[in-house]
Amino acid sequence: MDKVIVDPRDAITDICSGSSIAVGGFGVCGIPEMLIAALVAAGPTDLHIVSNNCGLDGVGLGTLLDAGRISRITASYVGENREFARQYLCGELEVVLTPQGTLAERLRAGGAGIPAFYTATGVGTDVADGGLPWRYGADGAVKLASPARQVSVFNGRSYVLEEAITCDFALVHAAKCDRIGNLVFHAAARNFNPLCAMAGAVAIVEAEQILEVGQIDPDEVHLPGVFVQRVVEVPTYREKPIERLTLRRAGPDLLDGGRR
After folding, report:
1. Torsion of CA 191, 149, 163, 105, to 10 degrees
2. What is the tally of structural domains in the chain?
3. Residue pair 51/22 in contact by the 8 Å Cβ criterion
4. Which of 45, 84, 156, 210 is the most buried (most CB within 10 A)?
5. How far apart are CA 142 and CA 155, in angstroms?
6. What is the DSSP string of 91-148?
7. Is 22's pLDDT higher than 80?
8. CA-based nearest residue to 60, from 32, 84, 18
9. What's the rounded Cα separation, in Å, for the pair 62 and 70?
10. CA 171 and chain centroid, separation
11. Strands 183-184 and 167-178
12. 219 by DSSP, 3-state: which?
């Protein structure tokens, strides 16, 4: 039952080229940075990633992207990573853009054993009708587009059918866990982490603190250990970059603490 592994490199050793991986995090909040670094060092290619976004340039999943290891990503946001946008527009990367709430529910459904579900999100758009560019060609033309989805009417309202997501592996960051994998997340770092862990056949967790069984109150557990296969302890403090720095010129009311 003890799921603790000392070295992150040993925890991800069986992730091979062509694997699908659900990766927790939102921007750079709650990203499994140490596990991603171990994956970069290990060298698998042609990875199929499912994550809210792809980190920043040179940070988090951005490091896998810079190394050319990702061939396909299912995500809901592109904007903070210039290399992500470049690879997508140049036809080097297949991108399945998915509404954020739909992505979260597809992961949760995969972990819960629900094969598909209906949602009103995307009805009347290319999400339902098909035609979203998944991959561009080198000439800028759309090489692969999303297919049309099944749309059904319930109580007079249209809904689009979305399929659940499951992956070979999941990489997750948690604040605390015990030795059998019960997880506690900190504040906003909870984001996509529990959903990704649920969707992965093998969920690998980096935790800032590993406790003995019984040291976490059952009422504190955000995700039970049944969804977790491996746990690695990582440093509590890691420098987190600013995702978007916005500055404005200080006006008279801000100079000298507002005294002039």
Report:
1. 20
2. 1
3. yes
4. 84
5. 37
6. TSSEEEE--HHHHHHHHHHHHHT--EEEESTTTTSHHHH---EEEE-TTSSEEEEPPP
7. yes
8. 32
9. 10
10. 8
11. antiparallel
12. helix
Domain presence at residue 149: no
> How far out from the chain centre does Cα 162 lie?
18
Report if residue 44 sits inside a domain. yes
Range of the domain at 14: 8-115+164-233
CA-CA-CA-CA torsion sign (44, 47, 51, 55): positive
Read off the CATH number of the domain in which 17 is found. Answer: 3.40.1080.10
Q: Which two tokens stand for residue 240?
A: 């987190």
Instruction: State CA 217 to chain mean position distance.
Output: 27
Considering the entire predicted model, what is its pTM? 0.92
pLDDT of residue 253: 61
| Residue 229 within a domain | yes
**How many whole angstroms separate alpha carbon 40 and alpha carbon 63?**
7
* Region for 46 from its dihedrals, namely left if φ exceeds 0, alpha if ψ lies in -120 to 50, beta otherwise: left
Least confident of 62-71, 154-163, 235-244: 235-244
Task: Give, as one character, the DSSP assignment of residue 76.
Answer: S
Contact 209/179 with Cβ under 8 angstroms?
no
Beta bridge partners of 20: 48
Looking at this protein, which amino acid is placed at residue 207? A
Phi/psi for 40 (5° steps) reads -60, -45
Chain-wide mean pLDDT for the chain? 93
- Domain annotation covers residue 99: yes
> H-helix or E-strand containing 22?
strand 20-23
- Give the tokens for residue 52: 């809210």
The per-residue DSSP string of 45-75 comes to -SEEEE-S---BTTBTHHHHHHTT-EEEEEE
